């Protein structure tokens, strides 16, 4: 497919022209993006509703508010982020200029996911533009309304050659990945992450992989269960559980399991009313394939709450499973749905051992009144990120790098971390052509005297 | 899988947590310092046997620079290990938000033959400082140094956590089948691709320190004597077998004429009238490399040097004049004591020439006019840049050392090594109280809540 080669080639030629480099240009493009989000808010919310039945509130707060915040932060800070950074000099370089220069990498590829289809394209795009790159944008075809909208809108607001949008499914993405890029940021699953990195390896292209996994949530006996369960309920069932950093499963002492269930049930009623299906604030599973996948995880499980499904509307009720066995199917893969297994553990040691016996997750959660216990769980485990006594929230602090480790990913972004991800940090040492006498020490002929010095 | 046992042994040590306390890391680093002190003579002898490395050069690059990195690390480790507290937004004012530096686990360091101690030891310093276990794979081509490392390193480091694996391509291929938590590779781009492809199977993050042809632009306004010395020093150090050596010169015909006697004078000053007898000039590491380099001598015309001796693997410090872009010396990284000069009409042509080629690891520009140096810097891209000198930018540990594009990805030296081998984990530790502040985020999403947004 010549098409991909042409699109990427045009982006590269546009980058080589140098016009994406001046700060004024980058800020102008970011401002245009800001205008786009503000002017086309209705269309964006409508696309998100069509794709995921996202409520206006959730769509606005998760996908639009965050993007506007990131845009404002980036435009404000860009001059300071992009400024050369002088470094500490040693004796031999005291009279020289030594600094780290931030430079664009070239042509960046951003591959989005379907669960937060707008923000997962926009946030990387903002960082890549800010760093002075050309960017090829590939939204997920699964969230087809948002993909179509992004393909329509970006060319209306941004430089068409520098920031092209490529649509399509697996064949198109595979073809795109044969082209040479200077950085690839991929959000999606572990299996495809491996494919992306292998394709990148052919061109020695650095990658940022935002993948997933089973994010554990440990609830200590010593904790305010009502508060903990409210926060967990919010994070688990938003977007119908289709959030990469949703608490995937709960670990807690068997003695508090039923209280946890009661509290979550009460919160669910508070959030979505008696009839969840008719709540305008509860989303749907993205498509039939994922509906069937999530539904099959319920087989053979003790359903403490929920379990109702409706295939026609891809509806799965907020569901809680109790006394779940670590070997069951629901504990094998990332659930990515509104099903919350509770796995009983007798102690925090057992919880830590359980977590460490599995792949490193994208997020880890621990609830306790005991600060020391929280510190211990953090210190004795690994994960991309952590929130203690809440869920999801570390995502919203842009000064924290957001990314995974091991099977949950590599690299990080958000805020300044995006700018750095998409920049080349070039070491620069500028010396004087004079002052040659100081160099004499290093020139041959070598002598014992020089070694001793 | 012949190395599975070794890797799982190291992984068990890693899981035991013994590499994590600062005291342990300091003890291992101090042991590395003792290794350099105790084995200094053996290191000088081994590198002399391997590639005729002059003792002054070996002392400088294999001992002194390594001890400097050790000192910087030991002096700063405590600070580097500390949690980095980050700015918080309004909602999180009462929370604790920080970046936790964590080891990855079991890392693999693959080193090349040209600076066989330095190029495994400096990455190892960072790997240990960051709390990892490590497998070191020295190059089989520098076989005397390989033997020294394999036989003596275990006397200094904890053999439960640090191991040396020897062998050639088949052994390295089998080693790469195992899962590592980080891979640090120094070598050529083709092998870099193989390493990254192997890493992709396990989603292992990598740093690749590769190479390329490092251009050296000499403007018409410069102090010819000093330029000649600095360029000759950088080119002929280690008989040219240096990844950041000035690979080829770009200058006008007039400057080529002026430089030639100055280069001749510098070579004589450094190595005497017969460099073959100088103890300060090295040899080529292998017959294969010797024959490869000898074939490059047909490029342009031999203006200085050109003598060879196959038995000794000696190639005289050589300057080739009037080299054409199509000549053999311009088709691959030289990696030997041969300096091709390519004549260009002016600086713009030099910059176009550089930009038409893959981005190099280092780039050099010489001029008395700082505007010219800055122009070359601004209009090109490279891993690092040094104005008015060669090699020196990598001796400043506060500057990141690494490539871009074909010359590599990632960076190290000083704190950058520590950061390379650390996961930067975003942590948010919230308070269980103040739950009312969270109410706006919970459903049901009334008109009022929407308005609040």
UniProtKB/TrEMBL annotation, chain A:
Top-level taxon in the UniProt lineage: Eukaryota
Primary localization: endoplasmic reticulum
Recorded topology in the membrane: Single-pass membrane protein
GO molecular function, a single term: 3-chloroallyl aldehyde dehydrogenase activity
Signal peptide: none
Coiled-coil regions listed: 23-50
Cellular compartment(s): Endoplasmic reticulum membrane; Microsome membrane
Protein name, entry field: Aldehyde dehydrogenase family 3 member A2
Classification of source organism: Eukaryota, Metazoa, Chordata, Craniata, Vertebrata
From TrEMBL, chain B:
Alphabetized InterPro entries for the sequence: Ald_DH/histidinol_DH, Ald_DH_C, Ald_DH_CS_CYS, Ald_DH_CS_GLU, Ald_DH_N, Aldehyde_DH_dom, Aldehyde_DH_NAD(P)
Gene: Aldh3b1
Entry keyword set: NAD, Oxidoreductase
Taxonomic source organism: Emberiza fucata
GO cellular component: cytoplasm
GO biological process annotation, one example: aldehyde metabolic process
Residue ranges the record marks as coiled coil: none
MF terms in GO: 3-chloroallyl aldehyde dehydrogenase activity; aldehyde dehydrogenase (NAD+) activity
Claim: NAD is one of the keywords in the record: yes
Signal peptide: none
Protein name stated in the entry: AL3B1 dehydrogenase
Family, similarity comment: Belongs to the aldehyde dehydrogenase family.
Active site as annotated: 209, 243
Record bears the keyword NAD: yes
Residue span(s) of domain Aldehyde dehydrogenase: 19-421
């Amino acid at each position: 497919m010549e098409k991909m080669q042409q699109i990427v080639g045009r982006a590269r030629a546009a980058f080589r022209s140098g016009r994406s480099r001046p700060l004024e240009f980058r800020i102008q493009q970011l401002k245009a993006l800001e205008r786009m989000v503000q002017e086309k808010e209705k269309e964006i919310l409508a696309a998100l509703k069509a794709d995921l039945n996202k409520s206006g509130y959730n769509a606005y707060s998760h996908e639009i508010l965050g993007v506007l915040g990131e845009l404002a932060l980036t435009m404000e800070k860009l001059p300071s982020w992009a400024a050369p950074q002088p470094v500490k000099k040693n004796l031999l370089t005291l009279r020289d200029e030594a600094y780290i220069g931030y430079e664009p990498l070239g042509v960046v590829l951003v591959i989005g996911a379907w669960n937060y289809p707008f923000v997962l394209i926009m946030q990387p795009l903002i960082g890549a533009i800010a760093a002075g790159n050309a960017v090829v944008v590939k939204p997920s075809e699964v969230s087809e309304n948002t993909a179509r909208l992004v393909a329509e809108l970006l060319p209306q607001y941004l430089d068409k050659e520098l920031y092209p949008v490529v649509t399509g499914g697996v064949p198109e993405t595979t073809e795109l990945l044969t082209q040479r890029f200077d950085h690839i940021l991929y959000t999606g699953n572990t299996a495809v992450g491996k494919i992306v990195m292998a394709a990148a390896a052919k061109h020695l292209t650095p990658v940022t992989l935002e993948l997933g996994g089973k994010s554990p949530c440990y609830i200590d006996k010593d904790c305010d269960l009502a508060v903990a369960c409210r926060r967990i309920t919010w994070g688990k069932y938003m977007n119908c559980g289709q959030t990469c950093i949703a608490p995937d499963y709960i670990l807690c002492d068997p003695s508090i399991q039923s209280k946890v269930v009661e509290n979550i049930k009460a919160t669910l009623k508070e959030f979505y009313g008696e009839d969840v299906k008719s709540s305008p604030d509860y989303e749907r599973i993205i498509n039939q394939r994922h509906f069937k996948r999530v539904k099959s995880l319920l087989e053979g499980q003790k359903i403490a709450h929920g379990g109702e499904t409706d295939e026609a509307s891809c509806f799965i009720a907020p569901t809680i499973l109790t006394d779940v066995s670590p070997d069951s199917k629901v504990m094998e893969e990332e659930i990515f749905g509104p099903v919350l297994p509770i796995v009983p553990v007798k102690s925090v040691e057992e919880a830590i051992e359980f977590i460490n016996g599995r792949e490193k997750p994208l997020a880890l959660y621990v609830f306790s009144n005991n600060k020391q216990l929280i510190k211990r769980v953090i210190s004795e485990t690994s994960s991309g990120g952590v929130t203690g006594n809440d869920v999801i929230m570390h995502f919203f602090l842009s000064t924290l790098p957001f990314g995974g480790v091991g099977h949950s990913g590599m690299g990080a972004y958000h805020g300044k971390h995006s700018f750095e991800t998409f920049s080349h940090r070039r070491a620069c040492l500028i010396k004087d052509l004079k002052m040659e006498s100081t160099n004499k020490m290093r020139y041959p002929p070598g002598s014992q005297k020089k070694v001793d010095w | 899988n012949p190395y599975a046992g070794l890797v799982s042994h190291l992984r068990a040590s890693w899981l035991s947590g013994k590499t994590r306390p600062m005291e342990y890391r300091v003890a291992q680093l101090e042991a590395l310092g003792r290794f350099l002190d105790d084995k200094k003579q053996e290191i000088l002898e081994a590198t002399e046997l391997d590639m005729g490395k002059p003792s002054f050069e070996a002392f400088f690059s294999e001992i002194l620079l390594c001890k400097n990195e050790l000192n910087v690390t030991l002096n700063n480790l405590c600070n580097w290990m500390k949690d980095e507290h980050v700015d918080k937004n309004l909602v999180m004012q009462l929370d604790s938000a920080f970046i936790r530096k964590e080891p990855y686990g079991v890392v693999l360091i693959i080193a090349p033959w040209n600076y066989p101690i330095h190029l495994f030891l400096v990455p190892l310093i960072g790997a240990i400082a960051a709390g990892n276990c490590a497998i070191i794979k020295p190059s089989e081509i520098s076989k005397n140094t390989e033997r020294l490392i394999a036989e003596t390193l275990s006397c200094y480091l904890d053999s439960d956590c640090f191991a040396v694996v020897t062998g050639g391509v088949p052994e390295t291929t089998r080693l790469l089948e195992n899962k590592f938590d980080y891979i640090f590779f120094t070598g050529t781009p083709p092998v870099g691709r193989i390493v990254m492809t192997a890493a992709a199977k396990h989603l292992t993050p990598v740093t690749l320190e590769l190479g390329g042809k490092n251009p050296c632009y000499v403007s018409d306004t410069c102090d010819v004597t000093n330029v000649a010395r600095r360029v000759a020093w950088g080119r002929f150090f280690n008989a040219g077998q240096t990844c950041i050596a000035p690979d080829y010169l770009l200058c006008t015909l007039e400057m080529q004429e002026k430089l030639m006697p100055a280069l001749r004078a510098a070579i004589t000053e450094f190595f005497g009238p017969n460099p073959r007898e100088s103890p300060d000039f090295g040899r080529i590491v292998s017959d294969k490399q010797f024959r490869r380099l000898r074939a490059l001598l047909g490029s342009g015309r031999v203006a200085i040097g050109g003598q060879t001796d196959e038995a000794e693997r000696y190639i005289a410090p050589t300057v080739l004049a009037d080299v054409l872009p199509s000549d053999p010396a311009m088709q691959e990284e030289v990696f030997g004591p041969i300096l091709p000069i390519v004549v260009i009409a002016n600086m713009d042509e030099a910059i176009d020439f550089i930009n038409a080629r893959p981005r190099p690891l280092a780039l050099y520009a010489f001029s008395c006019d700082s505007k010219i140096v800055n122009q070359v810097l601004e209009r090109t891209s490279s891993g690092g840049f040094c104005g008015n000198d060669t090699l020196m930018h990598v001796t400043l540990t506060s500057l990141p050392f690494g490539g871009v594009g074909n010359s590599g990805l990632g960076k190290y030296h000083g704190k950058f090594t520590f950061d390379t081998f650390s996961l930067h984990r975003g942590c948010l530790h919230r308070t269980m109280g103040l739950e009312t502040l969270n109410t706006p985020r919970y459903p049901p999403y009334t008109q009022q809540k929407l308005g609040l947004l």
